[in-house]
Design a protein that fits this description.
The protein has one domain (about 1-175, about 195-395): Up-down Bundle (Growth Hormone, Chain: A). The chain is about 80% helix and about 0% strand. The protein has helices spanning about 1-30, 35-60, 65-80, 85-100, 105-115, 120-145, 150-170, 215-245, 250-275, 280-300, 305-330, 335-365, 370-395.
């Protein structure tokens, strides 16, 4: 569990490194908003393909080997990012970093789910996910301690940490049993009268079989819209707050609040998912996201108030993502858990790609921070509705056998 949490911290660090380094990158390379939108999305594009391929490979070649390889490649490419000489080379380096890291998180979900006792599976997946916003808070803290001209140091720190962790993982992380499907294993959590489908481990078609299709679509839609919002905010929130008159340190402080709120809420929701208040807590989290986004779009230029709202907004949106990933881990049986989790993460990565680009387009069109928050509010509402539909679809169903 410890090394899995640290791996999630590394991924969270990388995902938000671009946003906190943005000011220094713009200053050095004179990048336009459109170029920065592409740069922000480059890593998540690599993560999208890495999650699709990595989730499938983890079902066939083993979780441990794939996770260690992903973490090591991420560290190498992150260090290479610090050697970029133009906005174009920087974008390519970020794409390669995403490809290296892409298979890590779906593999983490599968490992934690398979190594946890039945009553702790959802809570432990949420615990590991909480490492991602903690990683984001760490990179924001580093940006506070360095001037923007030293943005390359962020990627150097983000590279050597994973390389050390990969070495530790070789001795600390045990290989999970090779996924298989026993004859007595129930075929899935949402069996609805469809006959058993015989498919090999890692078969992508199996995630839609045996009554899982509708829940899978709700899960993908929720993750897509949720991470579209998360990474639009994480990529552009510091820039938008600075444009509204806040200092760079205040903007970084608001982003730290967003991440800390998300990490704490993900931990709390994880514990609630294991108890009787599971449904109520998920509904409250999903309902709070659009309400808090509306509040921040109307918030005055008061730094304390903005930090409090971003803290709560991060708590709502990021905790909801913890629920989605826990649902993905429980929705699919062992033989297809890697590919199922990988496809879910990939759907979220598409949102991660669209979000920063959408933010860049809105800013280029002259929209201010309050207007941008209002523009994406309908998407957040739709994501919350789909999340509630997912909860309704999966509530009361039996878990898949492990």
């Amino acid at each position: 569990m410890a090394v899995c949490v640290l791996a999630a911290v590394c991924e969270g660090f990388d995902l938000q490194a671009a946003g906190v380094a943005a000011a220094g990158i713009v200053s050095e390379f004179k990048a336009t908003p459109a170029q920065m939108g592409t740069f922000f999305s480059a890593s998540t594009l690599g993560l999208f393909f890495g999650a699709l391929v990595g989730g499938r490979l983890s079902d066939s070649m083993g979780r441990r080997r794939l996770l260690i390889t992903s973490i090591a490649l991420y560290g190498i490419f992150s260090i290479l990012t610090a050697r970029a000489w133009s906005i174009e080379s920087l974008t390519v380096a970020r794409l390669l970093t995403g490809l290296g890291l892409g298979g890590a998180f779906p593999t983490l979900i599968a490992i934690v789910n398979e190594r946890s006792p039945s009553h702790r599976r959802r809570a432990n997946v949420a615990l590991v996910y909480s490492g991602m916003p903690f990683g984001g808070a760490l990179v924001s803290l580093i940006s506070l301690l360095t001037v923007s001209v030293h943005w390359r140091a962020i990627f150097i720190v983000g590279g050597f940490g994973p390389l050390i962790l990969a070495a530790v993982m070789r001795g600390a992380l045990r290989e999970a049993p090779r996924p298989h499907r026993a004859a007595s294993e129930p075929s899935g959590v949402l069996s609805e009268g469809l006959g058993p489908v015989t498919m090999k481990a890692g078969d992508f078609r199996a995630i839609f079989a045996e009554g899982r299709a509708l829940a899978t679509l709700f899960l993908w839609g929720s993750c897509f819209l949720g991470l579209l919002t998360v990474y639009l905010l994480l990529s552009w929130l510091p820039t938008l707050l600075v444009a509204d008159g806040f200092t760079r340190m205040q903007a970084a402080g608001a982003q730290i609040g967003f991440n800390i709120g998300g990490a704490i809420s993900a931990l709390l929701l994880g514990e609630l998912l294991a108890g009787r208040l599971r449904n109520c807590s998920v509904v409250a989290t999903l309902a709070a996201s659009p309400l808090l986004l509306f509040l921040i779009s109307k918030a005055p230029g008061n730094f304390t108030l903005v930090v409090l709202i971003t803290f709560a907004l991060g708590g709502a949106i990021l905790a909801a993502q913890g629920f989605f990933y826990a649902a993905a881990a429980n929705l699919y049986p062992t033989s297809i858990r890697g590919v199922g989790a990988g496809a879910t993460v990939a759907a979220g990565r598409l949102g991660s790609i669209v979000g920063p680009v959408l933010g860049g387009l809105l800013q280029a069109a002259g929209r201010g921070s309050s207007q941008i928050f209002s523009d994406i509010l309908p998407l957040v509402i739709l994501g919350s509705v789909m999340g509630m539909a997912l909860l309704w679809r999966t509530d009361g169903r039996r878990e898949s056998a492990r």
